[in-house]
Design goal:
It is built from seven helices and eight strands, in the order βαβαβαβαββαβαβα. It is an alpha/beta fold and 223 residues long. Strands 1-8-7-6-5-4-3-2 form an eight-stranded parallel β-sheet. Helix 3 links the parallel strand 3 and strand 4. It binds 5-O-phosphono-D-xylulose. Pfam families: Ribul_P_3_epim (PF00834).
């Protein structure tokens, strides 16, 4: 039996929001029942896109009291952990491919009292995560190649979730297992059944019908 509640936690990705109305968007997702706010930081080096960085995170921190789940798609994240903590991150997730010192970065995040997360690209062997599984609060399985919102879900993520869920149940049942990329009403139930309990969603939340409806559809699909 897993230690964390298996109740699904919805994590809208603000990468897909209207940044000219960031405060309104954050209020809308909170009112719509978001459980945490996913913040995608991209450096144009680790991924072929630049999103935003510290000032936007700090602005989000001023605008909401919700948990800020920061996904660092940046090279050598150890250079910026302290700054992202200062800017208001509650959880920081780093890529195994982006650092030579994965265990040290996890320690660095934990030393600030924040939740440490680890993630990996869809083409990276899961084994690279294993040495730190007991030390983290969150594992993120990427179900797209990171860098852009609105991409198609990669089905092999389902088996990867099942495998990591089994490992976590052995060594760290309290850790969250999050999935990110192409998540929507059509696949959220299958992802839940595979063992994920946190669901990052950009397009399916900030779509044409707005965050309240997007979140309602996702929540309904988990039933
Ligand atoms: O990290 C990323 C992309 O790199 C994701 O968080 C996306 O922003 C999710 O967007 P959708 O696939 O839900 O549109």
């Amino acid at each position: 039996m897993c230690g964390v509640s298996r109740s699904p936690r919805l994590a809208p990705s603000i990468l897909s929001c209207d940044f000219s109305r960031l405060g309104d968007e954050l209020r809308a997702i909170q009112q719509g029942g978001a459980d945490l706010v996913h913040v995608d930081v991209m450096d144009g080096l680790f991924v072929p896109n630049i999103s935003f960085g510290l000032p936007i995170l700090a602005a989000a921190r001023r605008a909401t009291d919700q948990y800020l789940d920061v996904h660092l798609m940046i090279e050598q994240p150890e250079r910026y952990i302290d700054a992202f903590v200062q800017a208001g991150a509650d959880g920081l997730t780093v890529h195994v491919e982006a650092t030579r010192h994965l265990h040290r970065v996890v320690q660095q995040i934990r030393a600030h009292g924040r939740d440490a997360g680890v993630t990996l690209n869809p083409g990276t062997p899961l084994e690279t995560l294993r040495p730190v599984l007991a030390d983290v609060q969150r594992v993120l399985i990427m179900s797209v190649n990171p860098g852009f919102g609105g991409q198609a879900f990669i089905p092999s993520a389902l088996d990867r979730i099942r495998a990591v869920r089994a490992w976590l149940d052995d060594v760290n049942p309290d850790a969250h297992l999050e999935v990110d990329g192409g998540v929507g009403p059509a696949n959220i139930r299958a992802l839940m059944d595979a063992g994920a309990n946190e669901f990052v969603a950009g397009s399916s939340v900030f779509g044409a019908d707005g965050p309240a409806e997007g979140l309602r559809r996702l929540r309904e699909a988990t039933q």
